[in-house]
Design a protein that fits this description.
mainly alpha; 89% helix
């Protein structure tokens, strides 16, 4: 009887773990779709920006550029909010993810307030700085949580999140430092070259994050099926 109870408890524990990773896998997949939507939006912004400039040139006004800027700004803001809410929804498995989601949303709000109302002002500078700092903190928290949550599903993916976090911190610090050193005349050119290298590295790191999101989603859903 006692052994049966232990077996039943183990079975319930496995079912609970399976449900947890299945849900996490689905939410990670949603994050992947949101990122794809973001990439599509960026491409459309570029295309429509060219169209808007052509229309403005023809009409002699800036109405088209302003309209497209507002429309795509709101779309981008909506996508960012949805991303943050999805991350917050994963907070029931790790409280830090809820915090990370809130940080992401606040960062998006700061960015959009700056772009829509305070561009090229000191308030805009403060908002953009706050958005950048919050974005960095979000990324570190998110990567830390993913490293922890993914370990049972796939330790190699979990290790990748740890390496990603370290690379992100190094590249971010390097980017900020190189930009700061550009204000020192004696090393300005060297710092400018370094900033270009770090910015390229930052782009590579963000692409790495997208790959990890897809791998994590697949690992979690495969793990849930094995339980």
């Amino acid at each position: 009887m006692y052994g049966d109870n232990i077996g039943q408890e183990n079975e319930e524990a496995y079912r609970s773990l399976s449900a947890k990773y299945d849900d996490l896998g689905k939410k990670m997949q949603t994050l992947c779709y949101i990122i794809i939507a973001t990439i599509v939006q960026v491409v459309l912004v570029f295309v429509f920006a060219i169209v808007a400039v052509a229309i403005d040139y023809t009409t002699g006004s800036e109405a088209a550029s302003t309209l497209f800027s507002i429309i795509f700004g709101l779309i981008g803001f909506g996508i960012s909010i949805f991303y943050g809410i999805t991350v917050m929804g994963m907070g029931k498995y790790d409280e830090e993810l809820k915090t990370a989601g809130i940080l992401y949303i606040v960062s998006a709000v700061c960015t959009n307030l700056n772009n829509m109302f305070f561009d090229d002002t000191w308030i805009g500078f403060i908002l953009e700085l706050a958005a950048a700092v919050l974005s960095v903190i979000y990324m570190i928290k998110f990567a830390t949580c993913m490293e922890y949550l993914t370990f049972n599903a796939d330790s190699s993916v979990a290790d990748s999140w740890g390496k990603f976090k370290n690379a992100f911190i190094i590249v971010t610090v390097g980017t900020v430092a190189s930009v700061f050193f550009m204000f020192i005349p004696i090393i300005r050119i060297l710092a400018a070259l370094a900033s270009i290298v770090f910015i390229i590295a930052l782009i590579v790191v963000y692409i790495w994050q997208i790959v990890l999101l897809f791998k994590t989603s697949a690992a979690m859903r495969n793990f849930s099926k094995r339980q």
